[in-house]
Amino acid sequence: MTLSPSPVVTDHVATATASANSNIALIKYWGKADPANQVPTTSSLSLTLGGTRTRTTVAFDGGADGEDVVLINGSVPWGTARDRVVRFMDLVRERAGVTERATVSSVSTVPLAAGLASSAAGFAALAAAASRAAGLELDDADLSRLARRGSGSATRSVFGGLALWHAGTDDATSYAEAVPGADDIDLAMVVITLETGCKSISSSKAMQATMTTSPLYPAWVEASAADLEEALAAVEARDLPRLGAVAEGNALGMHATMVAARPAIVYWLPGTVEAIHAVTALREEGLPAWVTIDAGPNVKVITSGARAEEVAAALRDRLAGAVVSVRRPGGGVRYEQVGQ
Ligand code: 2P0
């Protein structure tokens, strides 16, 4: 991570810009043990994806009409999206002893709410920009703790490559750290985008409903601890098939808990099932390919960097109408100089 020494102050406006990439979990986060502090029920492991940066500028300029101004891709977000950013800014102000309202401007290259975890990149970049502009000097673990309060998956986007989010038991013990090995194991992902619209139900609501109504949920939480150990052992052994198999099982198990929720939460579309079968067929033909699916219909394929283009081409052949792209490991939070 590149650190700039302090916020840039121009005409007494403290401002900072930071960016972060999105990440996709190999071992998933699905459920909050402590919703107020965003402490999860399970630890999770993710891969940060290159080329998925969100860039955010925070300026403590007084905002407008005594309120924060929030712009996402140039527009004022509606509904809870703005409230989440303002609540997060309140947390940063409280920690830094700042009272000034701010202008927050965020530009994302990831389709919003498309199952590509745009909130992970968004809140990791916001945590870095807001804390720096407010004069806080956070180390990586503290930045990860702060990002967690914005969105759970943002905890991991502070780091590049593989990131392990320790569930912990409270605010102090729930944070992520980098795990070496993404390049040694030649990890890559092929993203099959079936839909870029808004989710039918938000992750936060869906995980809460799963926890409280799905009889399968406790079994997934229990299995998840063993899955994480297996995944870390596979990374350590540089064993991609072993990592792919456990990641696929963990993700499909997470969806099974949702399908068993009452009422059922089914993020999958017909194209999702078609993609799962296509990936299974590729694997039977000898290609390294395992699925993972988040809170949406899109499918991400865990594969090797060396075979990623081949896997993508085979999927384009088989899945008419799907947009298929190759993603390689990306870097963590970056602080950027602000020009005024
Ligand atoms: C993950 N997902 O581990 C899991 C797997 C989606 C499925 O983290 O409520 O936007 O803001 O903490 O982080 C998406 O949930 O939820 C997510 P909040 P978040 O990547």
Provide an overview of this structure.
With 340 residues, the chain is of the alpha+beta class. The chain is built from nine helices and 16 strands. Strands 1, 2, 7, 8, 9 and 16 form a six-stranded mixed sheet that branches. Strands 3-6-10-11 form a four-stranded antiparallel sheet. A hairpin with a 2-residue loop joins strand 1 (8-10) and strand 2. It is globular. The relative contact order is 0.19. The model has no long low-confidence stretch (mean pLDDT 93).
List the helices and strands and how they pair.
Elements (H helix, E strand, L loop, with lengths): L7 E3 L2 E8 L2 E5 L4 E3 L4 E2 L3 E5 L5 E7 L8 E4 L7 H17 L6 E6 L9 H16 L6 H11 L3 H4 L4 E5 L8 E5 L7 E7 L9 H11 L3 H20 L3 H20 L10 H15 L5 E4 L5 E6 L3 H11 L4 E5 L6 E3 L4
Parallel strand pairs: 8-9
Antiparallel strand pairs: 1-2, 2-7, 2-16, 3-6, 4-5, 6-10, 7-9, 10-11, 12-14, 12-15, 13-14
The structure holds ligand 2P0.
Ligand 2P0 binds next to helix 5.
| Sheet with most strands | 6 strands, mixed
CA(first)-CA(last) distance: 23 Å
Q: Tell me, rounded to a whole number, the average pLDDT.
A: 93
Sequence of secondary-structure elements: EEEEEEEEHEHHHEEEHHHHEEHEE
Secondary structure tally: strands? 16
Class per helix and strand makeup: alpha+beta
State the shape: globular
Strand content: 15-25%
Helix content: 25-40%
Oligomerization status of the protein chains: single chain
Gyration radius (Cα, Å) is: 20 Å
- Tally of alpha and pi helices: 9
Low-confidence stretches: none
Bound molecules: ligand 2P0
